[in-house]
């Protein structure tokens, strides 16, 4: 991530922290002092590491063990360069606002004290700060960004324009991320795991039928389609929709439709349920190739 982009992303967090002190990455310009009851904005204090509680609003749940070990080794040699940020939570007690990765690595390094900015923040500010810091991570995938955006809207009562200002992104970018959460879980998981890109996902969003989305999603993976080929495939489908002839079946009940959608998500293909008035019917599970058939049979423990 470029320095300019990182600076732009930091605007929302800096505004929330009301931080007027810039920290030199190689040398602290502000003297370290013991915290006092009036320790305030702009000061760095050494606090006991065992007095710091994790942020209950932390949206990040997974931390790379190898990356933590590498940071821990660096802290052992160089010390912790960038302080964590906390708020007072009682006598000799602090609650983490941002910097959980640094806190974990410092504990691994065996530190008993840790440099910290001490801030005042209510619960909503705590959540907003944690979410913004999370969004600023370089290795965040599109689904993680989308989920953080949605949490900021739901739990911080922000509109999309306000959210865009917080994270220095325009409204259309915010909207594109949020739309990813409307995709079936199987497609979201593929995007999260890097099997498809956000470009693939955006093309699939334009398909209205979730079952068709899942069918195309599996086809993309099976044939390693590029984003451009995916867009062409979706456009061709929209220009030449399959014409349904003859008498159309009765629409599925909500219960049966829900089961069909869940099966389609489970098998990552366009599952169809047919049910007659007596409750009898069939399940159709299409496959794209012999390998795809093998995948489905394996899921069925065949």
From TrEMBL:
Listed InterPro entries: Chromosome_partition/occlusion, HTH_ParB/Spo0J, ParB/RepB/Spo0J, ParB/Sulfiredoxin_sf, ParB_dimer_C, ParB_N
Keywords: Chromosome partition, DNA-binding
MF terms (GO), sorted A to Z: DNA binding
Gene Ontology cellular component list: chromosome
Domain ParB-like N-terminal: 45-135
Positions of region (Disordered): 20-40
Pfam families the record matches: HTH_ParB, ParB_C, ParB_N
GO biological process: chromosome segregation; positive regulation of sporulation resulting in formation of a cellular spore
Family stated for the protein in its record: Belongs to the ParB family.
Protein name in the entry: ParB/RepB/Spo0J family partition protein
Organism: Mucilaginibacter limnophilus
Lineage: Bacteria, Pseudomonadati, Bacteroidota, Sphingobacteriia, Sphingobacteriales
């Amino acid at each position: 991530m470029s320095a300019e982009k990182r600076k732009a992303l930091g605007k929302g967090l800096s505004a929330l922290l009301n931080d007027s002190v810039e920290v030199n990455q190689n040398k602290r310009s502000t003297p370290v002092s013991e915290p006092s009851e009036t320790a305030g904005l702009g000061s760095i204090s050494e606090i006991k590491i065992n007095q710091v509680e994790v942020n209950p609003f932390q949206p990040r749940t997974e931390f790379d063990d190898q990356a933590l070990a590498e940071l821990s080794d660096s802290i052992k040699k160089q010390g912790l360069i960038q302080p964590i940020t906390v708020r007072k939570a009682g006598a000799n007690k602090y609650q983490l606002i941002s910097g959980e990765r640094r806190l974990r690595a410092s504990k691994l390094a065996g530190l008993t004290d840790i440099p910290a900015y001490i801030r005042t923040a209510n619960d909503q500010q705590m959540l907003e700060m944690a979410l913004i810091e999370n969004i600023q991570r370089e290795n965040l995938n599109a689904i993680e960004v989308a989920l953080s955006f949605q949490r900021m809207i739901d739990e911080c009562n922000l509109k999309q324009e306000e959210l865009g200002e917080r994270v220095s992104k325009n409204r259309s970018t915010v909207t594109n991320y949020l739309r990813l959460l409307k995709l079936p879980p199987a497609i979201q998981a593929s995007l999260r795991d890097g099997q498809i890109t956000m470009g693939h996902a955006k093309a699939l969003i334009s398909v209205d039928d979730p079952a068709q989305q899942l069918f195309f999603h599996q086809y993309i993976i099976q044939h390693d389609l590029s984003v451009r080929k995916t867009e062409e495939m979706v456009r061709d489908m929209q220009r030449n929709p399959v014409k349904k002839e003859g008498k159309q079946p009765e629409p599925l009940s909500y219960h049966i439709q829900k089961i069909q959608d869940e099966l389609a998500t489970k098998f990552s293909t366009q599952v169809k349920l047919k049910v007659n008035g007596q409750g009898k019917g069939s399940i159709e599970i299409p496959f794209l190739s012999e390998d795809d058939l093998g995948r489905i049979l394996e899921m069925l423990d065949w």
